[in-house]
Amino acid sequence: MGIYRRLLAFIGPYRWRLAMAILASQGYAVATALVSATLYLIVNGLQNKNEVVIDNIPHVPFLMNIHFPTWWIPFIIVGVFTLRSFFEYVSQYQMSSVGIRAIRKVRDDLYKHLIHLSSDFYSRGRTGDFLSRIMNDVGAIQGAITDVISDLTKQPFVIVYNIPMVFIFGGHYALIALAVFPLVIVPIVYLGRSLRRTTKKMQERSADITAFIGETLAGIHVVKAFNLEEEEIRRFEKINKAVFDFFKKTIRVTIIQRPLIEIMGALGAAGAIWFSIQHLSIDRFTAFVISLFVFYEPLKKLSKVYSTIQQSLASGARIFEILDSEPAIQNAPDAFQFHEEIRDIRFEHVSFSYETGKYVLRDVNLEVRHGEVVALVGISGSGKTTLANLLLRFYDPTEGSVRINGHDIRLITLHSLRDHIGIVSQDTVLFNGTVRENIAYGKVGATLDEIRVAAEAAYADGFIEGLPEGYHTPLGERGLKLSGGQRQRIAIARAMLKNPPILILDEATSHLDNESEREVQNALENAMQGRTAFVIAHRLSTIQRADRIVVLDQGKIIQQGTSDSLLREGGVYKRFYDLQFNL
Ligand SMILES: Nc1ncnc2c1ncn2[C@@H]1O[C@H](COP(=O)(O)OP(=O)(O)O)[C@@H](O)[C@H]1O
Ligand SMILES: [Mg+2]
What we know:
Strand content: 5-15%
Mean pLDDT: 87
CATH topology of the largest domain: ABC transporter transmembrane region fold
CATH architecture of the largest domain: Up-down Bundle
Radius of gyration: 36 Å
CATH superfamily of the largest domain: ABC transporter type 1, transmembrane domain
Largest sheet: 6 strands, mixed
Shape: elongated
Structural class: alpha/beta
Bound molecules: adenosine-5'-diphosphate, magnesium ion
Distance between the termini: 67 Å
Oligomer: single chain
Number of domains: 2
């Protein structure tokens, strides 16, 4: 129940609306109970013609000897049903608005939480799974919050207020009908439990679907180029079938409840009618039967509430799993805003492992002075990107420290640290928006002039002006309308607009043709002017211009120096150099 209490906490702020809904439910329940009384009046009027004469309910003294003309009946009917609808509308409206507000808050909180979580969390899970939790699971608890609360605050009153009616019209025969009540509870509770398990599995499988679709759409070109459409369809159908199977199970469990309740109810009603049919007057008998049927609806709704609760607990658990995970990378309690000029960046005895025991960096010592351009060289998997990730504090070193001007970067606020660093990486991430918006990502509120200056420096202005709508051309999802080199230059413009003192270029030129490489190369030269830069590159042309070359191998620095000195030294760098020039 802990999960449900936490879900309810989201409703807390709307307790006044909730109170109003509960109040309106009282009206609804009373009006519902009056339906059988109305029937009594109708049948009574039918027998007495001009007058309604209430004189056959001896066990309720205040209902004895009431007379009024028959023409009141239509007004009573309209009155009862109007009140019932009005109160139902009010309570439903208030409840639904509480529900959608609460859901919005859950989704906001989830997103806020997700976006603050650090890289280690994202490398453990799948994006599609997170998507599914935000959309499917939150959607599932929306039903829980709205329906459950609206039914829980309404249906019990309908039952309670209807009980006197059953006794008023049925007298002691009412006891026979009510005897079956407890029997109804047993299957509801039993079925509810199994429902919770099945739902949990179903939501997990639904997450598989979202993840799968996300992945195949992101790699749609690969799918097509390898002629894997049929294969992907087959895999999709398999995952979809798994969801279907669990769906089938939950449906079987949920829909069996209504007939069960109906049969039990019918048994109770049949018993009560059997014994009362020869003893009650026709008006009382009619009202009695109707009042018994009034119980059906709330009972069915309440049984559904139970199963909805069980289902939403499964989803709730998946939501709280995210809300409960703490970002591994956070501001230290006494973190300070870093505003100094950069003097030096030092990696001191830095070791790092993504998974315990498997070191990716080992005892790395590196000092970079302001304005220096350092090239990181090494085969793929040697730890270059990881080194850059540590500077950005995507991860913290397992041992040792990264220092800027002598400050351990763990003591600098994340925001001010990352404000000082620009990054252009191999996979240029462009968002669904215009060219302008994508460059402006580097600086919130940048003017078009500033953006243009950055684009010029990034050698991007030329091709941007050639686009159909210039800077206002929409790029589409992931910027697929542009070539690799163009995307890269937009990313560089973005970094230059941010104008950070530290720049990380992670294989920014790796998959470009010679033509665009020259342009990107020029753009990068511009970008590195006056900054401290870490350049991770395959191309010697980029590397040779660096002030210093650092050669990484299996997470260790094995060589360091200028291109010339490293060539004289021989070793890994020389092999790398020869390989590139002798191709
Ligand atoms: N998120 C991660 N989780 C676990 N291992 C990782 C992760 N990212 C990279 N690695 C591993 O760390 C090593 C270094 O990777 P990386 O720094 O990306 O190398 P490089 O950039 O030099 O190609 C590789 O063995 C890689 O498999
Ligand atoms: Mg890398």
